[in-house]
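Researcher: Quick test of sequence recovery. Tokens follow.
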């Protein structure tokens, strides 16, 4: 994942050019304002000479102009510096090599030589946040927060969920087992790159489920990864929370349009309808076979009416992190009370489970993530 020397040299060169351009722009602004002030220097001197006789309004007006000129120059420089120094989003890949095969048995899936993609915003923060998206989505869904966050952030895209891989025969659908093992491999790779950072995992919807599944499919692979905190945003709880994924899992690929548009009928509010329209647009730009297999295998795991399995998973991830937080959307509010009671009965911290007034897709909006994560970290 580390950039090479050429890239760093290029970035340093760009940084120097940026600093020079900031100096030129702010200097020019200050010069123009200074010239404007100097044009009236005679009036300033005259006003100062008569200061003891009377308080000349000219002094006030041009004194104010001088202050404004200086402040404006400083403000322009500060604004440009802040804007230019804000870290940008960079893209990267994780090569799936022999290290990915450690503690993993990809029985029927050929993944070696392929890549996983991620977005990253580097910051000096001691906290490193790693995000994982929902079914059929990708790292781009976290772009808004990545830009605004004060933490070092990496958003991963699951294997085969990159839109560019849609028609690439090398990226055939793989099992849930393999997906989880590759997720663990990505976490190990990131941990090796940033050995001293405190890692917080943030999973949304199926991404939250993937964090659960680390304890089932990748226990050995996670021994090298120390996790500080975990935030689960609307994880699946039981059969009632897999409505959309269950429908996706049964879509006839030969005529998917009719069945996919039928998912829109599940919307109960106008905002939810708009989110679902956007969601369907996104997943149809991906390898649908990959998405459908993932949906089918995950839905089968949650084919239960009770919350017991969810609470079991919650207890397992609670043992691999110092804190585990769960945020349920308004869509899942009916499950809040049973989860709270069950968590308390199992000795889990029920205070770390909240029911948000936001709807499902709003949980990955920048404003919600900022409020939620800054309250946890």
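Model:
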């Amino acid at each position: 994942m580390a950039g090479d020397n050429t890239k760093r040299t290029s970035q340093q060169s760009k940084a120097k050019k940026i600093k020079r351009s900031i100096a030129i722009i702010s200097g020019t602004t200050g010069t123009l304002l200074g010239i404007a002030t100097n044009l009236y220097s005679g009036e300033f001197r005259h006003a100062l000479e008569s200061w003891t006789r009377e308080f000349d309004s000219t002094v006030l007006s041009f004194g104010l102009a001088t202050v404004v000129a200086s402040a404006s120059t400083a403000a322009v420089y500060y604004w440009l510096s802040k804007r230019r120094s804000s870290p940008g989003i960079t893209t990267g890949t994780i090569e799936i090599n022999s290290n990915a095969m450690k503690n993993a048995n990809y029985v029927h899936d050929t993944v070696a030589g392929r890549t996983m993609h991620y977005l990253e915003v580097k910051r000096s923060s001691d906290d490193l946040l790693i995000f994982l998206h929902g079914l059929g989505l990708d790292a781009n869904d976290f772009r808004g927060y990545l830009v605004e966050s004060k933490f070092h952030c990496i958003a991963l895209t699951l294997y085969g969920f990159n839109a560019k891989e849609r028609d690439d025969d090398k990226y055939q659908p793989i099992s849930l087992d393999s997906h989880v093992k590759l997720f663990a491999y990505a976490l190990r790779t990131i941990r090796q790159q940033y050995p001293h950072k405190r890692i917080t995992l943030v999973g949304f919807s199926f991404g939250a489920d993937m964090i659960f599944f680390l304890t089932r499919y990748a226990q050995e692979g996670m021994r090298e990864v120390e996790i500080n905190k975990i935030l689960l945003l609307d994880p699946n709880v039981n059969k009632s929370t897999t409505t959309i994924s269950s429908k996706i899992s049964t879509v006839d690929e030969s005529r998917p349009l009719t069945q996919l548009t039928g998912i829109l009928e599940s919307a109960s509010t106008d905002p939810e309808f708009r989110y679902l329209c956007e969601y369907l647009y996104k997943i149809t730009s991906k390898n649908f076979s990959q998405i459908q297999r993932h949906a089918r295998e995950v839905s089968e795991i949650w084919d239960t009416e009770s919350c017991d399995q969810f609470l079991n998973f919650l207890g397992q991830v609670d043992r691999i992190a110092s804190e585990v937080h769960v945020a349920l959307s308004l869509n899942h509010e009916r499950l809040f009370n049973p989860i709270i009671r069950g968590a308390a009965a199992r000795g889990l911290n029920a205070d770390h489970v909240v029911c948000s007034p936001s709807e499902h897709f709003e949980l990955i909006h920048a404003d919600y993530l900022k409020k939620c994560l800054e309250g946890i970290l």
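Residues 5-38 form the longest helix (34 residues).
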